[in-house]
Amino acid sequence: MNYLLNSFECTGACVPGLEYLHQVQKLALEPAMVDVMDNLRDRIPICTWIGENIDIVNTELNLYLQACHECFYPHERHEIQIFAAPLAQSLGIDGLCNIFTNPITILIDVGRIAPEDWLSIVVHEYAHAHVGEFGHNQRFARILWHLCLGLAIELPIWDPGRESELRSWPNCKSTVDPLALWRGDSILDFRF
C-alpha cells in the first residue's frame, strides 16, 4: 500500500510510521502538536524510522510509566497511556500530558532529550497526569516530589512563587538536533 500525502510518496515502513503519526495526533491536545509533515527534507526518513522502531521506543517508555505507577498504591493509580511522538518544533517542549483523553495520554518527544533522561521527562508528565491538571502548583510539586523520591531522582524544591523552576524538573539534557533520532541518525542504546 502506498500513500500520497502532500505530494510525497510513502511506501514500505513509511506507511505504518505515517499511520502511527496520524493516531498520536488524535491524542494530542491539538493535532498540529505532533507534526513533521511540513519538513519536506525529513518526513519520509522520519516516518520510515517510526515504522521500523516505534514499538521498541514505546516499550521502553511503558517501562518508565510502570515504574511511576509502582510509586503509588494500586487504588491511587490513574489510567494512563504513553507514546513517543515528534512534537512540533515550534512548541519547544519535550513532552505533554493530555488530561482530556480517556485514558490520560502522555506524549514524549524522545528526539529532544538524551535517552538516559527519558525517565525524568516521563516522571514530569506523569505528575501532571496524576494531578489531572496543567500547571506547576503545590499539588503538582507534591506528586513530583513523591515520584522523584520513589525513583531515586533528585528531589525538587518547591516554594510558592518558584513554580517556573518546576517546569523543567527533573532536569533533562537536550539533544543538539531534535530530529536526529527520528530520522535514524542516532543509535538507540537502552543499556543506561
Question: Topology of this structure?
Answer:
Elements (H helix, E strand, L loop, with lengths): L2 E3 L2 E3 L3 H14 L15 H27 L10 E5 L10 E4 L5 E5 L9 H14 L6 H13 L12 H4 L13 H4 L9
Parallel strand pairs: 3-5
Antiparallel strand pairs: 1-2, 4-5
Helix pairs in contact: 1-2, 2-3, 3-4
* Main sheet properties: 3 strands, mixed
Strand arrangement within the widest β-sheet reads 3-5-4
Task: Work out the radius of gyration.
Answer: 17 Å
Number of strands: 5
Relative helix content: 25-40%
Overall mean confidence score, pLDDT: 88
The domain tally reads: 1
Structural class: alpha+beta
Number of helices: 6
Percent of sequence in beta strands: 5-15%
Q: Spans with pLDDT under 50 lasting ≥5 residues?
A: 1-5
Shape: globular
Subunit arrangement of the protein:
single chain
First-to-last CA distance: 38 Å
N-to-C series of helices and strands: EEHHEEEHHHH
